Amino acid sequence: xxxxxxxxxxxxxxxxxxxxxxxxxxxxxxxxxxxxxxxxxxxxxxxxxxxxxxxxxxxxxxxxxxxxxxxxxxxxxxxxxxxxxxxxxxxxxxxxxxxxxxxxxxxxxxxxxxxxxxxxxxxxxxxxxxxxxxxxxxxxxxxxxxxxxxxxxxxxxxxxxxxxxxxxxxxxxxxxxxxxxxxxxxxxxxxxxxxxxxxxxxxxxxxxxxxxxxxxxxxxxxxxxxxxxxxxxxxxxxxxxxxxxxxxxxxxxxxxxxxxxxxxxxxxxxxxxxxxxxxxxxxxxxxxxxxxxxxxxxxxxxxxxxxxxxxxxxxxxxxxxxxxxxxxxxxxxxxxxxxxxxxxxxxxxxxxxxxxxxxxxxxxxxxxxxxxxxxxxxxxxxxxxxxxxxxx
Length: 392
Hints:
By secondary structure, the chain is α/β, with parallel strands linked by helices. It has three domains: 2-264, 4-Layer Sandwich (Purple Acid Phosphatase, chain A, domain 2), CATH 3.60.21.10; 271-324; 336-391, no CATH class. Helices cover 29% and strands 23% of the residues. The chain has a six-stranded mixed beta sheet. Strand 7 (115-119) and strand 8 (122-129) form a beta hairpin. Helix 9 packs across helix 10. The longest helix is centred in the first third of the chain and has 17 residues, at 21-37. The protein is elongated. The protein starts with a strand and ends with a helix. This is Nuclease SbcCD subunit D. GO terms for molecular function: 3'-5' exonuclease activity; endonuclease activity. Residues 268-356 form the Nuclease SbcCD subunit D C-terminal domain.
């Protein structure tokens, strides 16, 4: 059986205020084409279909279009909710949608009830474990205390018990949305730490033939049978070096992985991180390859240059993020600005802050404005003129 594993669509998400909806639509088109052209038998989507619990209408319409196109192909699709999704909203109409071959699994209580899909060698049981927030599902799994490992372990105990009662030779696929130990994180995943622990060991999933993971945005292999597909698009500059893809997995007659192939997703525009002084970034010939990329620029100028974004966009018109990180000698006290706050009064901290962000300290007039402002706050009588000066 050929299974196409994807996750973390995050429909409705933007990248630094740039809408990704067209890119997400291109991904859906690519997904449908792969299903058709590669004779895929089942599609699995391991959570975070949407980027937030109440997605924008355009994202809902794209999801609706994706479901119709997959249903028209007659290829079964199994989906679970992730930590970004509203399980209740995503699961509305699940019973009816089941009849079209789209199987939404958003209720933790149903994690041991598989979707059974047959092929020439018998049934493959697909178990959908939606994102399990420990505080919300402890009663369901009779776990009085504990975190992700405890509730996922209890859910997998139910899966293994159900699988043990099925005919010999029944193969198994588990969909789960979790942070598994050994996975590499990026900046665009929402933290799911509970009690100081976010990750669960891969051994939690022992006993099944393939585990289709979601949550982490980089495609990665935890073990031969435990994999993340990653997100189909880059949603932060920490993913600039990711190869965005889906896994095309083929399960053999005994549940062995006969193939595991990465299928590339469309790239709307490459991402690049560049670093240097403003003049270096504007003049460096080796950066010509990034001129049409989405850019995160880190400026290392000792003093903040005038109109840096406007000047950068003349060469890099798709600059989305500008970071200031001045190069300073290790002995420069401003390198460890945060350490310098201890034991200093408000006036000193404010003056240090001006120095930190601007590169030079306040002059005598600016120091007097700061002093008047602090005095006004302390006495509760901030004058309008002083407020205007501080704002300026």
